Amino acid sequence: MPGSLKTEAIVLRGIRYGEADRVLHLYTPERGRVSAIAKGVRRAKSRFGGRLEPFFRLNLVLYQGKSDLMTVTSAETIAGHPRLREHGAALDGAARACDAVGRLFGDGEPHAGVYHLLANQLALIDRDPTSATRANALAFRLKLLLAAGFAPHLASCASCGEPEHLVGFSGAAGGVVCGACEAGSFALSQEGHDFLVAALGRPLAEAPDAGPPALAQADRAISETLEHHAHVRLRGVGSR
Ligand SMILES: [Zn+2]
């Protein structure tokens, strides 16, 4: 049905199109991921100014015609996040967060919680670009897994329910596993386990830190969970 849609949105990425246009991948609270074309946006005198760039949080009016691609008819900035663009690690963290959201959730799959999580993550690393650490990126991914319904089982063995002697992590089993069920798992230290529990349970701004080996285990646990249950492969979070 042709008509206009007023929505908040975060720009996940922009792709040059034709002479002066750009196709935007957007994440919205009520429609999930949508694509829209911004006509003439690459001209010097575009009425959109520099607002339709990745990581902008905007109030948009989108026109839905007959094609699948909507057209941006108006854009107002809620937050442009200028500081995160001046800091390499923050820019990288923002790009990874937007990439993960765009790949984990398909078109027409709305998760208002994911929208707010992404908005929080961008605001956090804009307010303090030094907070864009490896631990922060992992905590963000864990919370995305939770929002998508794939949070790893951490309280007891994911295979048999044993509450103690948890020694490994298995993406196939969906969480931590005990010594009797460890086949197919990799070793998870107490520190790695504690990081996963705290990162899932605390607000993003209070995400815990951990040593490099524990963070590497957490990274692997998240990657294997994504691959087994969401069939999505994301770039590692790096070694910062
Ligand atoms: Zn077990």
Catalogue the ligands. zinc ion
Specify the overall morphology: elongated
Structural class, judged by helices and strands?
Answer: alpha+beta
Fraction of residues in H or I helices: 25-40%
Biggest sheet record:
5 strands, mixed, barrel
Q: How many angstroms does the end-to-end distance come to?
A: 48 Å
Average pLDDT across residues? 93
Number of helices: 5
> Quick one: how many beta strands?
8
Largest sheet, order of strands side by side? 1-2-3-5-4
Note poorly predicted spans. Answer: none
Strand content: 15-25%
The quaternary structure here is single chain
Rg is 20 Å
Q: What is the ordering of alpha helices and beta strands?
A: EEEEEHHHEEEHH
What does this structure look like?
With 240 residues, the chain is α+β, with helices and mostly antiparallel strands. It is 33% helix and 25% strand. It has helices at 88-104, 112-127, 134-148, 190-201, 212-230, and strands at 3-17, 21-28, 32-38, 57-64, 70-79, 166-170, 175-178, 186-187. A hairpin with a 3-residue loop joins β1 (3-17) and β2 (21-28). It is elongated, with a radius of gyration of 20 Å. The model has no long low-confidence stretch (mean pLDDT 93). Bound molecules: zinc ion. The site of zinc ion (ZN) has 8 residues, from β7.
